[in-house]
Amino acid sequence: MIRPHRQTALLKSSYTIPDPSDYFSRIESLLRRSLGVSESAKAQVDVKPAPSVASGPPEAAAPPPQDEPSFFDLNAEAEETKGGNWADWKDIKDKIQTAGEAVGKVLPDLSDDAGHEEVLHEEL
User: Is residue 31 part of a domain?
Assistant: First the structure.
């Protein structure tokens, strides 16, 4: 009973075992006993055939519906509306910087040790 556990530990630790065939027969025997299956019982195998598949070249894909704009249509639309619906990155950068400054005013500055008492840990 100890031998399969030891060999399993060896395999999990990336070591090799002397006789893998013997190991797997022992594991199978343990599993059969724990499940109450006779060690000499044969497995029932019912293999169903796979469904038939079409052979030959694949069918051509249907063209995309005309309701949806293609990538090229979106690119052309962007060129037409340049500056209209598109965000100005300078404005966004300014808004982010302003928001960051507002957050900095609310939160304490923890970047230095000013106002913080140094704690010594004697156990270290």
Answer: yes
